Amino acid sequence: MSNSQHTAPHDTVTGLILAGGRARRMGGHDKGLIELNGVSMAEHVLRALRTQVSEVLINANRNRDRYAQLGCRVIGDSEGGFLGPLAGMLSGMQAALTPLLVTVPCDSPLVPGDLVARLHAAMTAAGARLAVAHDGERLQPVFALLDVTLRDDLRAFLASGERKIDRWYARHACAEADFSDATDAFRNVNTPEEKQALEQHLAGSQGRRD
Known about the structure:
The protein has about 210 residues and is of the alpha/beta class. It is about 35% helix and about 20% strand.
């Protein structure tokens, strides 16, 4: 049985869209609010994620009112200073009302419909408290499923001055979920050229569905 045939208990997982970065390579524009074919990237992610979880949260440190218009709880980093994705993950673990938290970046709008199921299957098979997507060549560390009881360890890690996500993962048994058959899921937008390419991809996908 492949991982995609496993199902994750919907009501045990909270989704977190990570939109708290500075977006330096996009001229400082809030990437989650950049539109692809008339729809913000955060909304593309939300549409894909909301059917897989009990609630979707958005981690944002700017434009929180605009994100709130998407109908989600919006949470800022509990640790100030734009400390990177781990700070957003910590805030998500503190805010989640479920035992598990799945995280996705706001600038990757092609989230697969079985993301949570496959991460959950890998976590369960390994008996781990953390699962991360692997695209066949490398880990995609912000596509992760986390046991929220890891929050105290993560808080201490950040308090020690650490910021690197791979160093925190290395402290724990970390399951890898195979997404080598779905590498488009990890396409993101860091430049205007990548934005244009993704718009064309999305338009092509819509045309095939029609």
